[in-house]
Write a structure and sequence with these properties.
Elements: H1 35-38, E1 39-40, E2 43-44, H2 46-64, H3 76-104, H4 121-143, E3 147-148, H5 157-182, H6 184-193, H7 195-213, H8 219-239, H9 243-259, E4 277-278, H10 282-285, H11 296-311
Antiparallel strand pairs: 1-2, 3-4
């Protein structure tokens, strides 16, 4: 019988068990990493969450603000239209945060504005700080010889009517500006870059928008707005709530625009109480900006910062209540975000 001819192909020698070697890993990963741009450890990336918040806010404002055309433009209708737009701004800042709270599965109070805080003492103390700080500033300007109160512009019932109207208006201003710059965005960005980097970024933006959005504003007034914004961030960190800042912000603006009847970021309000006047160096008077453009405002802010630090000292974490709800306790947690009150 003929024998089979040997194959001309060389035999392939199979590796013995355990001798298999894995190929070297690629130098550059070929796996798509786009998801890393959108998600983080807590779900959607904080930057995109702030983007969604702002986008929803703009959409809500555009929808609701159309109703202003139902209000007359002239006479008292102008004032009511102004109040309506301010109320729309509040809704546009708060409603998207309520939606995001549901999406993120956390209480709305986490963003620093618990509803029940309106009746707590932080808000009312903030009101006193607002009128006190602005009065201190006007006193310094009076001592410098650049400010004069003048005579009354209003009499009788109109004094109370405009006092209440502008009180309500600036209360809405306080809620809108504080929550927009130190509420949801501050809480969310603090999770990403830390509390103070977020505070500096948002306070700088707060000052920049004052410069771009107000006729008659100057760089000193813009810097003042940024520094005051940082001070309000400091009060947030020490009290864990925005209500002190809302109260102080509202009463500062009310005292400036109505009580002392001076320009606020370059504008004056109708229905102000006094015929106040300035004279002298614009470095002391603030020029077209008003008291917030005076170099003396930084003296008042520095004094307020020192006084608040003494009255609301930082506490060690071991000394804090475990619930995190002690709004009436004057010291607060030193953390990167807000806490439920």
């Amino acid at each position: 019988m003929d024998q089979p001819e040997p194959s001309s192909k060389p035999e392939v020698e199979l590796p013995a068990p355990g001798d298999e070697t894995s190929p070297p890993p690629p130098i550059f990963s070929t796996q798509p990493s786009v998801h890393r741009m959108f998600t983080g450890p807590e779900g959607l990336h904080p930057g995109w969450r702030v983007f969604l918040y702002v986008g929803m806010g703009v959409l809500v404002f555009l929808i609701l603000s159309n109703a202003q055309f139902l209000i007359p433009e002239r006479g008292a209708g102008y004032l009511w239209r102004t109040l309506f737009i301010q109320a729309v701004l509040v809704v546009s800042s708060v409603l998207p945060a309520i939606v995001m709270a549901r999406v993120e599965q956390r209480p709305f109070s986490s963003y620093g504005l618990p509803i029940r805080g309106l009746m707590r003492r932080s808000f009312w103390i903030g009101l006193l700080w607002g009128v006190g700080a602005l009065s201190a500033l006007m006193f310094l300007m009076r001592m410098a010889g650049v400010f004069n109160l003048g005579a009354l512009r209003l009499h009788g019932e109109r004094v109370l009517e405009f006092a209440v109207f502008w009180g309500l208006f600036f209360f809405l201003v306080g809620i809108f500006e504080e929550f927009t710059f130190r509420g949801y965005p501050q809480f969310t960005l603090a999770q990403w870059i830390g509390f103070w980097p977020a505070a500096i970024l948002l306070s700088f933006l707060f000052g920049l928008l004052h410069l771009l959005g107000n006729i008659g504003e100057t760089w000193i007034g813009s810097l003042c707005a940024a520094v005051i914004g940082l001070f309000f961030c400091f009060t947030l960190k020490r009290t864990t709530t925005l209500w002190f800042a809302v109260g102080m912000h509202a009463c500062w603006d009310w005292s400036e625009s109505y009580l002392y009847s001076v320009p606020d970021s370059g504008g004056t309000t109708p229905g102000r109480l006094l015929n106040s006047s300035f004279h002298g160096s614009r470095w002391l008077t603030g020029g077209t900006v008003g008291p917030e453009g005076s170099v003396l405002v930084f003296v008042v802010i520095a004094a307020a910062w020192i006084a608040f630090d003494r009255m609301y000292p930082a506490r060690r974490s071991a000394d804090l209540p475990s619930s995190g709800t002690g709004e009436d306790a004057r010291p607060a947690r030193e953390t990167s975000g807000h806490h439920q009150e």
